[in-house]
Amino acid sequence: MVSLSPYTTFKVGGPVDLFFEPENIWELARVCTFLEEEGIPKFLLGGGSNLLVRDGGVRGACLSLRKLRGFEVLGDELWVEAGLSLKSLLDLCVQYGLSGLEFLSGVPATVGGAVAMNAGAFGFEIKDFLTQVTLLGQGHFVTKARDALAFSYRGLGLPEGAVVVAARFKLVRRTPQEVREKISFYLKERRRRQPLSFPSAGCVFKNPGQVAAGYLIEAAGLKGFSRGGAQISRKHANFIINRGKARADDILFLVDLVKEEVFRQFGLELEEEIKIVGEA
Length: 280
Prior knowledge:
Elements: E1 2-3, E2 15-20, H1 25-38, E3 42-45, E4 51-53, E5 58-64, E6 71-74, E7 77-81, H2 86-96, E8 98-99, H3 111-116, E9 120-121, E10 124-125, E11 130-137, E12 140-145, E13 150-152, E14 155-157, E15 163-170, E16 172-173, H4 176-193, H5 213-219, E17 226-227, E18 230-232, E19 240-242, H6 248-266, E20 275-277
């Protein structure tokens, strides 16, 4: 068994029964086929952001994709494997003078996770820059054009068991300095608005329509409310932070509290943006 706590940005969570870290997409395919044949459920792990693992851990196998970091520059397009961190992706954008993805600056995710969650910020979404996504399912690789994929707000409809293994982006040629300056701008804005000095999983809830979830949580009087080592951030109410020694149960208590209070006071149901996995 392997503790998943160090692999998540929340820094909480129990163990998983089996842990695999494939060296390449072909090894990933072999592991996935083995797990499917044996009837062992699998759980994908990228950068560990947008994720809460319950204290009881996860039954089955965890597949860490962080070693899948290949890339290829094709003119003004960039092909990257799913395990590449968004920070490394933006480093490539600076190196090759490719602009468009700067809004992802400061997001502690991998390419695969960002595509699967349709990561967005500052009015942009990652789907806006995609041309193709390569998936692995039932032992086969298939590449689909963006328009053939069912993207939604903070989501991507995938076939059951499918894994994002690579993505191709259409970007704009700029000087490395211009790209670097845009990355710096977005990173400063993120630091100004968000509590990046504490472990968290980013925004906990999706915005219900045109109303910001953070505004509703603050208006409900919950900003700063805490349980154990977990706290609803005073800086951004849609963040729950780990102030030290928080348990997943503390975070889940706050998640439920927010949903109950926002519904009681405003009649609106908040839906989690983070993925919650495992057993209590």
